[in-house]
Amino acid sequence: MGRVIVGVDPHKLSATIEVLDDRAVVRATGRFGSDKAGYG
């Protein structure tokens, strides 16, 4: 895999993260709460 793009969409209660490769194929995604459990 060459270059990747990491996108983050922050909200008050959560953050959504996606990783795309150089062909715009989603390689990873996640949604995390902005509380102590989400940071862990």
Number of helical segments with 4 or more residues: 1
Work out the helicity level: 10-25%
Cα gyration radius (Å): 12 Å
Succession of helices and strands: EEEH
Q: What is the distance, rounded to the nearest whole angstrom, between the alpha carbons of the first and last residues? A: 28 Å
Find the structural class using helix and strand composition. Answer: mainly beta
List segments where confidence is low: pLDDT < 50 over at least 5 consecutive residues: none
Task: Please provide the count of β strands.
Answer: 3
Sheet with the most strands: spatial strand order:
1-2-3
Envelope shape? elongated
Count up the domains: 1
- What assembly state would you assign to the polypeptide chains in this entry? single chain
Largest sheet: 3 strands, antiparallel
Average pLDDT confidence is 91
Percent range for β-strand residues: over 45%
Could you provide a short overview of the structure?
It contains one helix and three strands; from the N terminus they run βββα. The protein has 40 residues and is mainly beta.
Structure description:
The chain is mostly beta strands. It has one domain (4-39). 10% of the residues lie in helices and 57% in strands. It has one helix and three strands.
